[in-house]
Amino acid sequence: MHTQKIVLNQERNVTLTIYLQEIGEQYLRIRKRPAVLILPGGGYQFCADSEGEPVALEYLTSGFQAFVLRYSVGKDAVWPNPLNDYETAMEYILAHADEWHIFPEEIAVVGFSAGGHLAACAATMAKHKPSAAILGYAATIKNFISICAPNAPGPVDAVDRKTCPCFVFATRNDKVVPAENTLQFINALYTNGISFESHIYGYGPHGFSTVNPTIQDSSVLCSRAPHWVADSMEWLWDIWGNIDAEPDRKPRCARTVGGNYGEFLSIECTTDCVLKSDSAKELLRSLGMGELLSSMENLKGSNIVLRQILEYTQLSDEQIIEIDTLLSKISNPQ
Fold this sequence. Notes:
eight-stranded mixed sheet; alpha/beta; single chain; globular
């Protein structure tokens, strides 16, 4: 393993610690690795050691390259300095992706508490969004985060259909960052059709990190809470496809749930969604489906998926696939 610390901003003491593994040879078919960018918590006053390297080592053992960002804190945490630090770190990683054998489209952000707030902001509003976000007991409500970071935005309000898939976890009785932060963020993801997995454990203190016994007394924490580490890794394999399945990796979980939330149309969209696009209607007419369009107009408000209508008309599988391919070139108007 190779480790190195890079200074990204000397004036604000912003650093990126790099943890890299080899590829090839004894690593079978692995030619590249996914990566995680870890953002420790600390109320924007410091970056907690317990949520930095210990977390990186957990992901390293499962095949990830890992990075720990110590972003602007204290008097330097004036927004948007922390988000700018994230952008700088992501740009640095992407610029070295080939050298470090990283899949550039498979970089997840992992954030805790205030670092979870920063990770949620990265997932919702950054220029260089991660492809997935893992948020541990994250502060996501604007009024709440303003206590320690005045003028910082609330990522709950920024969730939209371009937000990346998220894995979120917290404890029900967290006295530092109430579970309401997680619940509201989950609801925003659900409303926008973004894939997510959530775990709100029955009880436990704030800041439990990986629940390593040298960090956290496990006797005061729900016995299932340590599972988040393994669960989050399994979830990432669902999002990206298992690394040991190269070169034929296939995701098991889509970025969005339901066709209506994609960037482009598909036969998985509801008929109401398709009817909002003049281009889609013109396409169906050009394929001799004027009667089908009339039927769709009569079904407004029914939330019937276009695939069901096409199958009911007894089109062949090849015809349905062709329609899906053509629709995938038309932007979703919703």
